[in-house]
Amino acid sequence: MASSIFFCRSGGDFGRVERRSFDSRTCSARRVHGSARPATDSRRGGRRAALVNVACMSTSVSPSSANIRRLSEDDCSPYLSNLARHAVHWRKWGPDLPREAAALGKMVMVSVGYTTCRWCVAMDDSAFADPKVAEFINANFLPVKVDKNLHADVDMLMSSFVQAILGSSNWPLTVFLDPHELQPFVGAGFLPPDRLLPALRNIHAKWEAEPSTVVAEANRNCVGLQQYFESQFGSHARGEGADESMDKHTLLQQLVDAAEQRFDGAYGGFLSNEEDQGAYKFMRPSLLCALAHAAQCGGAESYASKAEQMVTHTLSSIVCGALFDHIGGGFFRAVDRKFQIPIFEKALSDQALLGLALLECRSELDLALKDPNLDALICDCVTQTLQYCDRDLRVCVKTGSDSVDAATYFAGQDSDSMMLYGVEAGTRVEGAHFLWSDFELQLVLSPSSEEYKTFCATYGISQYGNLGFVDATLSSSFAGVSPPTNAGLYEGQNLPRRQVGQHDATDASKCACLDRARSKLLAQRRTRPPCARDDSVLTTTHCMMICFLCKAHAELDEGRSDLLERIEYAARFLTDSLLDEQGPHLAVKRAVKIAPDQHRVVASSADLAQADDYVWAISACLALARVSEDDESRHAWTDRASHLQAGLDRLFWDERLSTYRATSDAGLVVTLPRCYDDDKPYFVAQHLRNLREPSVSSAHTRTILDAVLHAHSRLVAAAPLSSPALLLNMPS
């Protein structure tokens, strides 16, 4: 069902109004093929995004309300706490919002962002901080700020709506809701002050003049969204008429064929679509794992060799190219088509899920036997990533005594840091922390040393720099706006990345030489101004890290005790700080706040836990059971997993659709999930793996498993690239 929406494309005249329809098919078209943010850099707000606009009318200003609760500096979200004293009187999404909005009668302006999002911060510091903009918002709207990491459910709804009307969605997001049902009316991406203020005036004027029209439009939008989300399940699923009896072998072949259409044979990885050669590549770990599984299951079938070739080429690009930080370890957020220029942000979820994917692909493809060089590079990459997480994201915590007995991990790091010299000295510049001039390398390593020569040859270092230009195709994805890299800023700078023919990880002497060089460079780099850190502590990412640690311990530890100790500390933090016994039930917290200087949890988030919190907590408990050394511990972890399964069923199971809802938040007009994998697997697909675990198998879990598989069967058959994790975790 389509409903009409007024909007004006980015860069256009807000007085010129164009007509476009909301169509639920638009929601699904891009989702079938991959990333939720396929068109542009998701951190930069996709400046090509447009703001929905209505016809210009006179403005009527309503009085502001003094009793609306502002954001708190003690909030568990650093992003929200940093905006507690902002010019806009932001409040937090919560259960009181519907009542407050209805009482005020003002449209709700929801702004979605997160700490390490460069353009989210830019919009907060420019457009929203503009005195005229802030004054108008405070007087005429109920402004709500959402941390997308804390409220993934709100982000899911808002981004789906914006994608449906504009064709793509990127952070920051701004969506206007009617105050009675909190249904979306219009939506936006990044906008500067000179374009934001006229749009705000037009939207407010439309509400003042024709509130019934706004409510009717918002209602039609909501109906369209609901129809799209429900169409993913059961008899209404995409591809109606697909053969539900198709076996996994056939589905894997379809997945390989679909992935081949998006595979970048020149550089590895997968394109967001066939036409957009310049978009950044965001990794989809579940796709790599599903293709590796197809290669292993396919035997002599032709699709098996195609799957293996795509996976090995992409794995090589990941561990050798600019997606990986070759000095300090860890994965950057995304990378350009050629794996030369990354988005320098680092997210904990990427470290855990890409690390898990590398280990799973290594095992599925038996790389230790088939390609020892790539296998050694993967093991080294995983080890360095664990070291990065330990060094820069891990925080030790006192849970019940004066001694440190637990540990967790912060959510990630920003891409920007202070430039120390040059025309940009004293300003924060993206990637500055990670770049090297040849002169700096010579100062640290000595130009005549074997370390310097080996390092430069291996990592493509040039006296002129290896980032002194921007590929023209990269610029195309920014629609006329300069991308984050430019020739002047990066002139003469180098970002280490392994060169073709320089990946012999089995050469012990060369590896030792490179280790010494990297160690010296890392020590020097740590004297530079650091990147800002996102100090959020989220249940989902903590549990992802537990799964990663347990997998690495099983495959790489080889009798060492260092990973086992980290697993024990992370497990204690899970039980003492993130799980909560509520009578007969075991509940999960969404997030907690830690004071690093005190080594203590100082607050727990009041936000409702979501389905993915329970799913990943179950996954973590099962992973801990697998590495437990005694029966008592194994039983304790599987018992916790069973209690969490009961909580997941009680809070989120939808009997009518035979699937799990993403959230139990009654304030959201749509609570169903989107059935696709982006950088994280679809949480229901992840839970299929939990349900298949023999240690928790029961008649109940088998019933749930069968129901979920039936509800998603046509989606898997019609759109295998939508959620490779669903296919991966299906029984054979």
UniProtKB/TrEMBL annotation:
GO terms for biological process: carbohydrate metabolic process. This is Spermatogenesis-associated protein 20. Residues 75-220 form the Spermatogenesis-associated protein 20-like TRX domain. InterPro entries: 6-hairpin_glycosidase_sf (IPR008928), Ssp411 (IPR024705), Ssp411-like_TRX (IPR004879), Thioredoxin-like_sf (IPR036249). It comes from the Eukaryota. It comes from Porphyridium purpureum.
